[in-house]
User: Which sequence fits this backbone?
């Protein structure tokens, strides 16, 4: 019996080019997560206020998901990719005037424009990858492409650690507050320098993204042969809203993205408050967690040959919930006279959650869009809209950190894993 290839040879180049976009938006996601802690210290704002970075960043997905789907439905996948790259580059370049103005709202607007572009890229790339081959290998194909997303994420984390967090002024929040009272001009100078450190990598990123724009402008991408039928918008929406599997998938994706962004955003705050670690050191543990995520993605892609996607997803959701309980209740090392004593069991549990999350986004995506045909163009928008979970949950967790404790705040990720376990169980029962 002839083995079905994951990607046909004739589509290999197009697959490689579109897969490169997964790394590109992964970089943006994970250079941004540590900025929540950075902006809090630079601008002397609360955890809730600093987490508005995530509201702006992932709010762009919500704002542009449906328009992006309608756009590519009207035009083409290639046009959607080009517009996404253009908006992505513009958003990056807006960091320069935002830094010069020293205005937090201006940074939020830059993030919003950037992620309007990312919304176009994700709405386009995910269903495009699903269409590049036989339906029976679609979930494996998307998992493989998504495996390159965390590679971009690790690069973004490393840049955030080495080029941003490590180069910020060592002045603590208490020292900055004291300066604000006795020498506001000195504080302003420190803030201006720190915001320049934050803005420079985004300026370089904007140049890289523009280079990708030129590359995609010059190459020819094949039309997705699976997506040739033209359904009316009303008929497509009617089909989607009557599809319980799809609606459950959108809900599960919302909770998944919420837990992913919460875990990766607040690792720094957890290590700072529980262990007294500097931000750059804490970011090192975040990078290690991402390395675990990358490794697990390839392992899980292999395991999908032997287990049903929903079965594996449900199992990993339960394991993720157990590790979250570990982050809440297990002890960490003591910090005494500049040295750590004991093991970081709570922090290790928090890092281990990443191994459980690696499978989830592309698997939910694949389950939701299975056998959809042309409806996939608009259906993918609902799943990109679900990335808005990253805009909803982090501010809630930031508020919990402000009013309660960083450990207690991880009750929110625990709830998210319970929802995903229920989703996986329900999909397992589907014929």
Assistant:
């Amino acid at each position: 019996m002839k083995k079905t290839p994951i990607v046909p040879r004739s589509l290999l180049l197009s697959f490689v080019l579109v897969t490169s976009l997964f790394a590109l938006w992964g970089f943006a996601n994970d250079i941004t997560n540590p900025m929540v802690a950075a902006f809090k210290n630079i601008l002397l704002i609360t955890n809730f206020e600093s987490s508005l970075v995530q509201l702006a960043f992932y709010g762009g997905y919500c704002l542009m998901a449906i328009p992006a789907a309608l756009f590519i439905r009207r035009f083409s996948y290639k046009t959607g990719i080009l517009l996404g790259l253009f908006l992505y580059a513009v958003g990056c370049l807006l960091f320069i005037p935002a830094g010069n103005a020293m205005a937090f709202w201006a940074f939020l607007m830059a993030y919003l424009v950037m992620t309007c572009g990312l919304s176009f890229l994700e709405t386009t790339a995910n269903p495009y990858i699903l269409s590049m081959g036989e339906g029976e290998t679609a979930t494996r194909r998307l998992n493989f492409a998504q495996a390159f997303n965390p590679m971009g994420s690790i690069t973004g984390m490393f840049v955030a650690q080495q080029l941003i967090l490590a180069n910020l002024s060592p002045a603590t929040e208490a020292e900055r507050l004291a300066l604000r009272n006795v020498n506001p001009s000195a504080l302003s100078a420190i803030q201006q320098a720190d915001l320049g450190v934050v803005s420079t990598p985004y300026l370089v990123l904007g140049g890289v993204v523009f280079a990708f724009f030129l590359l995609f402008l010059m190459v020819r991408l094949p039309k997705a042969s699976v997506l040739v039928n033209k359904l009316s918008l009303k008929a497509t929406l009617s089909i989607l809203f009557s599809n319980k599997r799809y609606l459950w998938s959108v809900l599960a994706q919302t909770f998944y993205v919420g837990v992913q962004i919460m875990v990766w955003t607040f690792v720094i705050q957890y290590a700072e408050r529980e262990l007294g670690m500097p931000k750059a050191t804490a970011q090192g543990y975040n990078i290690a967690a991402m390395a675990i995520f990358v490794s697990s993605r390839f392992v899980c892609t292999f395991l999908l040959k032997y287990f049903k996607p929903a079965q594996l997803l449900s199992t990993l959701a339960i394991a993720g919930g157990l590790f979250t309980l570990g982050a809440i209740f297990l002890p960490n090392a003591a910090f005494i006279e500049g040295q750590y004593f004991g093991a970081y069991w709570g922090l290790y549990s928090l890092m281990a959650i990443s191994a459980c999350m690696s499978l989830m986004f592309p698997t939910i995506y694949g389950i939701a869009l299975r056998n959809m045909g042309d409806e996939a163009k608009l259906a993918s928008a609902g799943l990109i809209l679900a990335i808005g979970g990253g805009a909803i949950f982090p501010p809630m967790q930031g508020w919990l950190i402000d009013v309660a404790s960083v450990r207690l705040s991880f009750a929110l990720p625990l709830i998210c894993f319970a929802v995903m376990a229920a989703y996986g169980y329900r999909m397992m029962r589907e014929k």
Residues 101 and 192 are 9 Å apart (CA to CA).
